[in-house]
Amino acid sequence: MENSNSGQMFIQDIFDTPEQSGGISYAYPLQNIRELTPLPDGYIPFYISHFGRHGSRYLVDDNEYKHVLDTFRHANSCDALTSLGRDLYERLKIIWSVVRGNGGNLTPLGIRQLTGIAERMQRQYPEVFTANAKVTAVSTTSERCIYSMEIFCGKLKELCPGLHIAEDADPRHMDYLNYHTKEAVSFRYNPDTWIGKYKEFEKEHVNPDRLITALFSDEDYVKGSINPVSLIWDLYNIAGILQNMDISISLYDLFEKKELFDLWQCKNYSLYVQYANAAENQGMMMENAKPLLKNIIESADHIIETKDIGASFRFGHDGNIIPLAMLLHLQDFYNSISDPSEFYNAWNDFKVSPMAANIQIIFFRNEISHDVLVKFLHNEQEILIPPVESEILPYYRWQDLKEYYNSLLSTHPLPQ
Fold this sequence. Notes:
This protein is of the alpha/beta class. The chain is built from 17 helices and eight strands. Helices cover 48% and strands 12% of the residues. The two termini are 44 Å apart.
C-alpha cells in the first residue's frame, strides 16, 4: 500500500500533522478555507440548506479518562512506572482536572467553531438573513447537538437583530436526522459480517509492546495488571481529543509516527465499513441518509415554489453527516473499495467529519429567468458532485441535481 506516490504523500501528511490521526476527533480545519468562486452574473443567494455536526467536545464519558488515570495511579503506587510513565501520570492528573464532569459536552473551542461558521456564513450571504426570511433549525435530541444549534442560531440573531429562527429539537426529527435502517444496525453489530476481518487487520497493525515497555518498569506488574492493547487505544483516544480543548498538554510524543498512523488506519477502517461506502457493506449505509436527502429536497422546493428566502439548519453527529456526504456524492466521499490496506487511500474520516463538520448547499436565483443554481460547500470549501454534469462548475442547475438525487431515492422505497 505504501509503494504508490499518493500513498507515501498521504502517510507523510499524517506524520507532519498528527492531529489528523484523531479521525473524527480532528478539530475543525479552519486553515483549509479558501476564497470562493465568483457567482455568475444575474444570480443572488436566496436559500441555504445545511447539515452540521456538533462542535468540538470532550470524550463522551468521563470514565474514558478516569480509567486511564486510575491505571497509572495504581502503577505509580506499586513503583511500576518508568520516568516517562510518571511524567504521563502527571499529565493525566492535569487533564482530569480540566475534563472532570464534562463528558460529552462541547468544549470552549467547539463554541468558537460554531459561532465562527455562523459569522462567516452571514458575512458571505447577507441577502439570506433578512427580517422576513423563513429560517428553521432542527437538532437531534443529543444535548451537544441542541447546544450547537442554539449557539449557531444565537450568533446569527446577534448579527441580524430582526432575524427570527424557529428552533426545534422534537424527537420526531430523529426520523430523518438520525435514521439507521435495521439492516445497517444488524450489519454493524453482527460478528459474522465485518468484525472478524477487522480484528485480523487490527492485530496486524496494533503493537503496544514498545510503548508499554517505555511506560512501565515492571514486566510482572504489566502481566498481572495491564491490558496493553486496551491501554494503547485509551491513550490514543485521549491524545486525539486534546486538540479540542484549551489545554497546552499533548500525548502525541508517546507514539512513534508509524504507530499513530496504524492506530488511525484501524479507526478509519471501522468507520468506513460501518458508515460509509466500503464494498463490504454493499452500499447499505446510503439508505440511512435517504430520509434526510428527501427532507433537503422538499424543504428547498418549498422555498423555491413560494419565492421566499431563508435557510434550513440541521444539527447531528458524525454518523449522520458521513452517510449524507456519501449519498450526495460529494467528491471522494463515496468511493467503494474492498481491500482494507487501501481504505486510507479511498476514504478519510478526518476529512469528511472532523468536529463541527458541515455541508452547506447554497441556492442562487436569477431574478429575470427564475433559474436556480446551487453550490456545495463542505467545511466551507467548494466541493463537486462528479456524477452530475455542469458547464459552470462549481455551480449546478438545481433541476439537474434534483433529477439525479430523486433517481437515487427511487432505487429503494423510503421508510414510511
